[in-house]
Amino acid sequence: MLTGPNASGKSCYLRQVGLIQLMAQVGSFVPAEAATLAVCDRIFTRVGAVDDLATGQSTFMVEMNETANILNHATPKSLVLLDEIGRGTATFDGLSIAWAVAEHLATEIRARTIFATHYHELNELASILSNVANYQVTVKEMPDQIIFLHQVRPGGADRSYGIEAGRLAGLPTSVIQRARQVMGQIEKHSHIAIGLRKGNASSNSVQERNGKSRRVSEKTADLSQLDIFNS
Q: Which of 71, 127, 193, 195 suits 187 as a labelling partner, its CA being 20 to 30 A distant?
């Protein structure tokens, strides 16, 4: 799993790995003092966002078609490079798809894979599956800016600095300030299940008794309503 800020170089890192594998396998030099690379049967990539409106395919459908092709044809000897799976749909849908795809690659196909994502919840997979490791593109955080270090190190990032990327792009100051207010409220009230590892983090559970199912309500925390208008 590869996490890190927007515009920090994750996609470049994926392309670099794919090119180095290809160059080494055709007998070319690689930009390194030394490298040990196993032979792969195919290089699969899912990088970038593009639609195909001429054939009626949205950006997300193109993404899903390409992902399906990878999952249906990759082998344990393949190199798979995935960038931002699940970003073209709703947050929960996208996170669920990304989790399931990563899990399938690790447990069923077992291909060598780099999975770049902003879904930091996927870092949890490293604590569940022995063949998954977390890496991050590092940054130096300053009081009013971030500095990209362009280094990949062990560990999972917990922030993407998307608002900072918007500031660098020139979004109005009022928009940036409001985005930070809204983000603070969302982070305060968000309860996206880091408990995905348990696989049953729901407010209701079904218990079997005398051959019949009965639903038992569990106690849930009393959550205050998210209010982004009075923050």
A: 127
Helix (DSSP H) and strand (DSSP E) numbers for the chain: 6, 8
| 104 CB-near residues (< 8 Å, 6+ apart) | 71
**Residue with structure tokens 């009393």?**
222
| Tokens 């940036």 found at | 176
Residue 191 near residue 223, CB atoms below 8 Å:
yes
d(CA 59, CA 94): 13
Which tens digits make up the pLDDT trace of 55-71?
Answer: 888 889 999 999 999 99
Structure tokens at 26: 């055709």
Cβ contact 58:73 at 8 Å: no
Tell me, what's the pLDDT at 56?
84
- The encoded tokens of residue 76 equal 């344990």
